[in-house]
Write a structure and sequence with these properties.
Blueprint lengths: L7 E4 L6 E4 L48 E4 L27 E7 L13 H19 L4 E8 L11 E7 L4 H17 L3 H12 L3 E4 L3 E4 L10 E5 L11 H21 L6 E6 L14 E5 L15 H4 L2 E3 L3 H12 L1
Parallel strand pairs: 2-12
Antiparallel strand pairs: 1-2, 3-4, 4-6, 5-6, 5-10, 7-8, 8-9, 9-11, 10-11
Helix pairs in contact: 1-4, 4-6
Length: 337
């Protein structure tokens, strides 16, 4: 029997974690929870929205009458620029450390009803430029810069106005540290970037490729945890967003539109997801072999109202999925036409 028919485990080359794949469970009937169907597209302006141009935010400040991407410091940040000085309790089992950072909000456009998927290439390029500018600025002061977006109520998004966030902190977070270690090990052993070697394997195989252009490739990773998870990779060696040249930035805007259109077409709904960029750590330290990449983690499983839940075995043992990454990539390619 092939891997498409029997249970097996796959190793995540970026983190070292394992994923249990159980394709034989695809025929399992579903009588579990179903999420509310996505709402109709919001209006272009909502007078009650905290993020629309000219409106007063929850923190009391008024937004300017912005016309393109708009960045401001979060009124309720998870990180503060001044470290608290907190230390551990004096026992090795009770460790803690101070952390400082900043949290910013990036409104993609003034239009309340149009997210990244609905913007045109020029408007998406403006968002790409904002990501690059934020990365370049914050990386000079912080070890890790995390641009990300939670799209949709299903992902816990607190405002329907299309926006993302950029968090930066002076420590290397858990997932980033794992990715740094795996990429560093591969570089030391082979003298090449792990993700560029991986991209060569995927290009030769083709089963998990979704779409590509001259500068970028979208694929469902071999070790994908979420049903329609994708990895967005540049074709050439590049460590950070700000290292992208003008052609690569324009190509990124184009392929983002293609990927997000495929997601929305899959179940004919605004596809929820969490996505984020992983660029090389900053702070003046070397990150040998690090390749820029973006993760897309969408939760939908069978329809617009049935989602994958990370519970039970996933929380207590390891991630498990039914739909194989190869089948997920084929579904996405199909809706792209």
């Amino acid at each position: 029997m092939s891997l498409s028919e029997q249970p097996h485990r796959r190793r995540n080359a970026l983190t070292g974690d394992w994923v249990l794949v159980s394709p034989q469970r695809l025929q399992r009937p579903w009588q579990g929870a179903q999420e509310p169907a996505p709402r109709d597209r919001p209006p272009s302006y909502d007078p009650n929205c905290y993020l629309c141009p000219g409106n007063v935010r929850a923190g009391g400040r008024r937004n300017p009458d912005y016309r393109g991407p708009y960045v401001f410091t979060n009124d309720f940040p998870a990180l503060l620029p001044e470290a608290s000085g907190a230390t551990g309790a004096g026992h090795p089992l009770l460790r803690s450390e101070a952390v400082r950072g900043t949290c910013r909000v990036l409104c993609y456009s003034p239009d309340h009803g149009r997210g990244l998927a609905a913007l045109d290439d020029a408007e998406r390029l403006a968002v790409v430029e904002a990501w690059c500018a934020q990365s370049a600025e914050l990386r000079r002061a912080y070890r890790w810069v995390q641009p990300f977006e939670n799209r949709g109520e299903m992902m816990g998004c607190s405002s329907p106005h299309p926006h993302g966030q950029v968090w930066a902190l002076d420590r290397l977070p858990t997932v980033a540290a794992r990715e740094a270690e795996q990429q560093r090990r591969h570089w030391r052993r082979h003298g090449r970037a792990l993700l560029l070697d991986y991209l060569d394997l995927e290009a030769a195989d083709g089963a998990r490729l979704v779409t590509a252009n001259a500068h970028w490739v979208v694929l469902v990773p071999y070790w994908a945890a979420w049903p329609f998870e994708t990895l967005l990779l540049p074709r050439r060696a590049v460590a950070q967003l700000e290292d992208l040249d003008d052609e690569a930035r324009a190509a990124l805007a184009e392929i983002l539109g293609r990927l997000l259109a495929a997601y929305d077409a899959l179940f004919d709904c605004p596809f929820p997801y969490s996505m984020g960029w992983h660029g090389a750590p900053g702070g003046g330290r070397a990150a040998p072999g690090w390749q820029l990449h973006a993760h897309f983690y969408p939760p939908l499983l069978r329809s617009a109202t049935v989602r994958k839940h990370m519970v039970g075995f996933e929380l207590l043992a390891e991630v498990q999925r039914d739909l194989t990454p190869e089948a997920a990539a084929a579904r996405l390619r199909e809706v792209l036409g």
